[in-house]
Design a protein that fits this description.
Layout: H1 3-31, H2 37-54, H3 60-87, H4 100-110, H5 116-141, E1 145-148, E2 151-154, H6 157-187, H7 193-196, H8 198-201, H9 204-217, H10 235-239, H11 246-250, H12 262-270, E3 279-280, E4 295-301, H13 306-309, H14 317-325, E5 327-333, H15 339-348, H16 358-361, H17 371-379, E6 382-390, H18 396-402, E7 407-411, H19 423-435, E8 440-445, H20 455-465, H21 478-483, H22 489-515, E9 522-528, H23 540-547, E10 551-554, E11 561-568, H24 572-581, E12 601-602, E13 605-609, E14 612-616, E15 621-625, E16 630-633, H25 642-664
Helix pairs in contact: 1-2, 1-5, 2-6, 2-9, 3-5, 6-9, 12-25, 17-24, 19-22
């Protein structure tokens, strides 16, 4: 190889690696992640990989492709910066946001989450990298010969091809070695992964890029053994293909019937989470709606944590009192971490995919009996959904029809712009109910309190909706500021201003239902979509701050009642169906939750998001990682034995695996 070319290539590798090291050191500093030995190793491996690719060809097209690749790599890094900041994990590899409209809207919403300093450093990093890439090409293209004894000798063409082949081989070896290392780290995380996020920090964007390359060119095949469990004759054979310990099967072999379908399998393992002591058995009387079916209105809130409502003074005093005066639970949790997943679980009573949003992996499949279909068939309901965003966001224009809605009211056809105050879609929902000759199931998806919470957005909402939203001037609990890892007091005051607007919308909803004479015949569910992010999760107190969300159910004829200690989105559909059907109610096989009015309600919640698992009952908090199959218990009221931890972890791992397989194998339709 030419000495000069080798020197240029070595220089590129050093500059690229050093600039990458400095860039990601600052990247990690902003995210408060630890920069570990593995982080540095992946930076070096990525630098060596790119350097070896450069020598494969001197053509303009090849270097243009490499430059484009580096640009995509940096854009991917910026996207993941926001995703790590919000979710604590990388963007799911198969998650394209459903479609281009979703990606563009998400970028428009979240680009402010990247500090200006990181944008500038990214641009500088790109200029340095591309500059030295093209400098290397110019240096190598000037060489056409080597010297021997002061005599210029033309380099044979086949020698150049040999060097190109060698570097291609080097690139392949680095790629496969890096993929193997990244996969190993994913499956064998360092101790403390649950609190210090080593799963993200050790891989970094370079390590994550190697995993993406693997998924693109060697797609992971989903094992469908669990999903097709109904084709297997015995539980012993099924158990061979599931991530469980033998005691789980053997201890119940003689007590429980053998599962006959994937749904049976899910119920079988959900039983493993109950512990016996975590089940309510008390009787709850519900009104009789057999003579006149009630309207149902579900108002899904956006990014509101229970911690905010509980601040004294509360930014949502009306809603806080309303929860006490209606049906509620002591603690309520989401089963996923995306808004669209909350809609799916609430309507269809099934767990979300543990790896990606349902819009990314479930837009092309068929769905079983969601509550909209069941109410239409059983009681002649008509249904409609209202949202001031584009229907293509999260593929709602596809999913809402598949989930049984008769009518879809979205922007821009029915609303002029996004982030209008929610009283506008709430008002249209009330009009729809008033004008209907049939009982109505209406869902209103909130938008007004969606992140990011900035003064500019507040002014935009005021301009569009003609409603003044005052800044929150009350006292903010210092403990909230101390435990929140991102929001400063000024930002929190702006966030609370949004919540004041939502509180006014909830009051508007109930006042207008009463004015129109609909309140005595309308069930109203108000529930948040997912946790509010940016709280540390290192201990029990922070876990609840981070994950607990508000929920209430107004039922005509029922006064304020705390029905259960713990519940989640998955319990909403069976609760509504039991209220409407009364004594005729039989839980559909696809409903994985339990009615809040049932005599046997499991007092727990199971959540999954981007391969992270959370299990909560009144005595224990267990968090885990699906890829590594690692589970730990946070400090809780009682100590949990290693046996119980393994039992719960295996059951959670199995449930989420079956759910993922069923969704992606189009097995939600029950014949």
């Amino acid at each position: 190889m030419h000495k000069k070319s080798l020197t240029a290539l070595t220089l590129f590798f050093l500059v690229f690696s050093l600039s990458s090291f400095g860039y990601f050191l600052f990247f990690y500093y902003l995210l408060m992640l630890s920069f570990s030995f593995f982080t540095m190793l992946f930076v070096i491996l990525f630098g060596a990989f790119v350097s070896s690719l450069i020598y494969i060809s001197r053509s303009f097209l090849w270097h243009a492709i490499l430059s484009l690749g580096i640009g995509i790599f940096l854009i991917l890094g910026l996207i993941n910066f926001v995703y790590i900041d919000v979710y604590g994990s990388f963007v799911p590899i198969k998650a394209a946001g459903g479609n281009l409209a979703t990606m563009l809207e998400t970028a428009k919403e979240f680009y402010v989450g990247v500090p200006v300093s990181l944008y500038l450093l990214t641009l500088l990093y790109f200029v340095i990298t591309i500059g030295i890439t093209w400098w290397y090409r110019r240096q190598s293209s000037l060489e056409c010969s080597v010297s021997f004894c002061a005599t210029s000798i033309e380099t044979p063409q086949h020698t150049k091809h040999i060097f190109q082949f060698v570097y291609m081989l080097v690139a392949v070896c680095i790629l496969f070695g890096s993929i193997f290392l990244a996969d190993y780290i994913q499956k064998n995380p360092r101790d403390g992964w649950w609190k210090d996020n080593y799963l993200v920090s050790d891989l970094g964007i370079p390590g994550y890029t190697f995993i993406m390359i693997q998924e693109i060119f060697v797609p992971h095949q989903i094992k469908n053994d669990a999903a097709y469990a109904h084709t297997v004759d015995t539980l012993e054979e099924i158990s061979k293909n599931l991530p469980q310990s033998s005691d789980i099967v053997s201890s119940t072999m003689t007590k429980d019937p053998w599962p006959q379908s994937p749904y049976d399998f899910l119920q079988f393992y959900l039983k493993k989470l109950e512990h016996g002591f975590a089940t309510h058995t008390d009787e709850i009387d519900i009104p009789d709606f057999s003579l006149k079916a009630p309207h149902i209105l579900v108002y899904q809130l956006e990014s509101i944590g229970s911690w905010a409502i509980d601040n004294d003074p509360s930014p949502m005093p009306y809603f806080k009192q309303l929860m006490q005066d209606t049906i509620h639970t002591q603690k309520f949790f989401a089963n996923g971490c995306h808004t669209i997943d909350a809609e799916f679980v609430t309507l269809c009573g099934f767990f979300p995919d543990p790896s990606a949003a349902i819009a990314d992996v479930g837009s092309e499949i068929q769905y079983n009996q969601c509550i909209t279909d069941l109410l239409e068939r059983e009681k002649g309901y008509t249904s409609a959904v209202f949202h001031v965003n584009d229907a293509q966001f999260w593929n709602r224009h596809i999913l809402d029809s598949k989930w049984g809605f008769d009518n879809l009211f979205f922007a821009p056809n029915y609303f002029p712009d996004e982030k209008l105050d929610d009283f506008i879609p709430l008002g249209k929902a009330i009009d729809y109910i008033k004008q209907s000759d049939s009982p109505v199931f209406a869902q209103v998806i909130s938008m007004v309190s969606h992140t990011y919470h900035t003064e500019a957005d507040l002014q935009k909402i005021e301009r569009l909706s003609k409603v003044k939203i005052p800044r929150f001037e009350g006292t903010i609990d210092p403990e909230l500021l101390a435990r929140n890892i991102d929001l400063r007091e000024e930002t929190m005051r702006i966030y609370f201003a949004y919540l004041q607007a939502v509180d006014n919308d909830i009051k508007f909803l109930f006042d207008n239902l009463e004015t129109e004479g609909l309140l005595d015949n309308t069930i109203v569910v108000i529930v948040n979509d997912h946790r509010f992010y940016n709280f540390s999760k290192n201990d029990t107190a922070n876990f609840y701050l981070y994950n607990e969300i508000p929920f209430m159910m107004y039922v005509p004829g029922m006064t304020g009642l705390e029905v259960r200690d713990i519940a989640s989105h998955i319990d909403i559909a069976p609760s509504l169906l039991e209220l409407v059907l009364g004594k005729e109610y039989r839980k559909p096989v696809n409903f994985m939750g339990t009615s809040l009015f049932s005599k046997k309600h499991p007092n727990l919640a199971l959540s999954s998001c981007n391969e992270q698992i959370q299990y909560v009952n009144p005595y224990e908090i267990i968090i885990g990682n699906r890829i590594a199959n690692e589970y730990v218990s946070l400090d809780a009221d009682t100590e949990i034995s290693a046996f119980e931890l393994e039992k719960i972890g295996n059951a959670a791992q199995t449930i989420t695996s079956i759910v993922k397989n069923m969704i992606r194998s189009n097995l939600l339709v029950q014949e």
